Amino acid sequence: MTSADPRALAAAFAEAYGRPAEGVWRAPGRINVIGEHTDYNDGFVLPFAVPQGVSVAAARRDDGVLEVRSLQAAGAGVAVPVDPRAPEARRWRETAPQRERWAAYPAGTAWVLREHVPDGRIGGASLLIDADLPQGAGLSSSAALECATALALCELYGADGLLGAAGRRELARLAQRAEHEYVGMPCGIMDQSASLLCTAGHALMLDCRSGLSTQVPLPLADAGLSLLIVDTRMRHELVDGDYGRRRAECERAAEALGVPALRDVKDLPSALDALDDPVLRRRVQHVVTENHRVEAAVGLLRAGAAAELGALLTASHISLRDQFEVSWPGADVAVEEAQRAGARGGRMVGGGFGGSAIVLTPADRVDQVSEAIRAAYRRREWEEPRFLTAVPADGARRLL
Ligand code: ADP
Ligand code: MG
């Protein structure tokens, strides 16, 4: 079964829970074209939704329990009160074994919604989750899981205020809060916004300070281009460690510079002069130039020059590698080999230290480029990378 088939998932739900699903919702993963580690610096990002995503079949229940099962998680499901203040909910948060931890994403989403939507209107539900989105590969399976859950609960319980265009912006914030408060991952707003707001054939230029976004045409196929996602098969565990450290460094730099966020740095040389710590100087150099690269990318796309994005992608990669220091060998090799084989450029994507890279290549060179990367991995005796062609797709929606 693929999770793109809502009827199969509804049938699996009926099998698992012994009653029919009321609906099936799906939220996509995303690829961020450019703008990495800019989101929590109040800057710009340019993601698009991919066709792969997380589907959730769901039905209400009247006992105030949220039960979640996932076809990608071994073992039975997890059942917790939908009221986050219930002692049982607290107890689960404090004592859940590792194998149940994934459930903090959907349960956390339900808990945040329960607190946010007036009158405790969000009640219990049974959920069955299925995904064709690799986890921890930088495609944001976590936000897809949160957003599919959020959409399902809002529709099932008539939280209509969160379902329109403005509502979805708010819903993105709530899903982000779930990840902050219940998963302990201080993520930015990009992943949830992309999953909820993207439209097919477009990227989403998102201002992470205001939350405002605009659709930017991304006609890859028409321009004779393909955007390859290279899953380097090197995994990240971002919850603890380096991601939080990078955020803290950016905050320290902003404070030292007397600006609310690094987005507000206007004069880069003076800012670099003002910082004693060479590490903070490198971080600032990346964030400030990366914001400008997003704006340049949007300009190129609006001008109909998508192929020229390649050079910006590569510049972004070098900055992430040398200034922000979050790249990893699998991504460096993929970007170098891709260019040698005729790609326009590429970069690591996601928080770093593992996950995926993207490569922009003429469509007729996809095979050469992917073979060059594969061969380079073989020479190093690394696990074979996986390739996906990224097609800008629609955001979260109800399927059934
Ligand atoms: P990313 O968002 O880049 O894929 P994260 O580490 O942020 O990586 O989120 C991955 C986590 O999300 C997984 O470890 C798991 O806990 C949860 N998750 C994602 N998809 C599923 C799924 N289909 N079933 C169960 N848990 C999932
Ligand atoms: Mg994530």
From TrEMBL:
GO terms for biological process: galactose metabolic process. The keyword Kinase applies. Keywords: ATP-binding, Carbohydrate metabolism, Cytoplasm, Galactose metabolism, Kinase, Magnesium, Metal-binding, Nucleotide-binding, Transferase. It comes from the Bacteria. InterPro entries: Galactokinase, Galactokinase_CS, GalKase_N, GHMP_kinase_C_dom, GHMP_kinase_C_sf, GHMP_kinase_N_dom, GHMP_knse_ATP-bd_CS, Mevalonate/galactokinase. PROSITE patterns: GALACTOKINASE, GHMP_KINASES_ATP. Pfam families: GalKase_gal_bdg, GHMP_kinases_C, GHMP_kinases_N. The keyword Cytoplasm applies. GO terms for cellular component: cytosol. Residues 105-197 form the GHMP kinase N-terminal domain. Residues 12-60 form the Galactokinase N-terminal domain. One of its GO terms (molecular function) is metal ion binding. Its EC number is 2.7.1.6. Residues 299-378 form the GHMP kinase C-terminal domain. PANTHER family: GALACTOKINASE-RELATED (PTHR10457:SF7), MEVALONATE KINASE/GALACTOKINASE (PTHR10457). NCBIfam families: gal_kin. Belongs to the GHMP kinase family. GalK subfamily. This is Galactokinase. The lineage of its organism: Bacteria, Bacillati, Actinomycetota, Actinomycetes, Streptosporangiales.
